[in-house]
Here is the input.
Amino acid sequence: MITNTLFEYHLSEMETPFSGWDFSYITTTERTISEPLTWSYRSQVLTRFRESKSVLDMGTGGGEFLETLQPFPEKLSATEGYAIAKERLEPLGVNVYGFEEDSRLPFDDLSFSLVMNKHESYSPHELRRILTDNGVFITQQVGGKDMSELNRKLGAPVDSPFEHWSLTYAVDELEGVGFKIIDAKEEFPYTRFYRDGLYQIHKEIIEKGYIDFPSHRFFLRAITL
Here is the structure.
């Protein structure tokens, strides 16, 4: 049975320093597991990354993922506010830029033949501006209905200002500025919290040994026309 002491211990762990997008501290402890998606973001970007001479990785986090894609193309840039991204990537020849608004990226027109984006916001108009003709945009996004069941269980507001954010909405936006959609998928994989998870919902976890909450992910690949 879960005790208050154990729950308080997990709360104290929230003070553990964290930066970038390396979630191994959580995933390797098996406190949660997530249902795998039917697509692989890495596989989708890797071949095109190898074939491209000018690439932008939007929202590179700590640069952990981008670092694994070596060897790098002739021109490789990344956007991110984390200092750790600069520390990891700039010695490898990657230009790391910070920026304040999606609608004003620090790049010239037609700068990139490939733009990669995992879980980062973007402006369709800016994407079209910085991509070359026949340039490729690949993104995996967190949908607006992500973890809404968790909010419901915790008594938090279920309605989100981003509830509209879905594959259909993203496709319409990109097509509206001159992209052609090549591939698109949307799924609602579960995230399972185990017995050592959230104390507020411990009764259900104790009864079943776990609790599932649907996530919301979508992927699309588009080219400029």
About this structure: Residues 41-51 form the longest helix (11 residues). The mean pLDDT is 85.
